[in-house]
């Protein structure tokens, strides 16, 4: 998406850090799990998208830098600030190298 676009979540997944993967000697547990998608209420989502499309078109009409897009996609919620978001910080042993690639490969939308 580009600047000014709005994305509405049609569904959501949770990326969760698995604490047992970080215990001393653990080798049998993946450090992160990704939940199955949970669908948003279709009627509410459609109404929200329609309202946003009308508002976005009013703010930036065609020919005046718009229209911006109102898109639908999958929300990815993370249970921790750095590690589950795939942030690479040397101060933390998060074992999250490649996590964003995994999310992109496993999560549709």
- Poorly predicted segments: none
Note the overall shape.
elongated
Total count of strands? 4
Q: In which range does the helix fraction lie?
A: 10-25%
The chain-level structural class is alpha+beta
Q: Tell me the span between the first and last alpha carbons.
A: 13 Å
Biggest sheet layout: 4 strands, mixed
Roughly what is the average pLDDT, rounded to an integer?
84
Report Rg.
18 Å
Query: Can you write the helix and strand succession as a string?
Result: EEEHEH
SS strand fraction? 15-25%
Number of helices: 2
Protein described:
With 109 residues, the protein is of the alpha+beta class. The protein is 24% helix and 24% strand. It is built from two helices and four strands, in the order E-E-E-H-E-H. It has helices at residues 42-59, 99-106, and strands spanning 6-17, 32-34, 38-39, 70-78. Strands 1, 2, 3 and 4 form a four-stranded mixed beta sheet that branches. The longest helix has 18 residues, at 42-59. The radius of gyration is 18 Å and the shape is elongated.
Quick overview of this protein structure:
This protein has 109 residues and is an alpha+beta fold.
What's the structural blueprint in terms of helices and strands?
Layout: E1 6-17, E2 32-34, E3 38-39, H1 42-59, E4 70-78, H2 99-106
Parallel strand pairs: 1-4
Antiparallel strand pairs: 1-2, 1-3
Name the descriptors:
2 helices; elongated; 109 residues; 4-stranded mixed beta sheet; 4 strands; alpha+beta; single chain; 24% strand
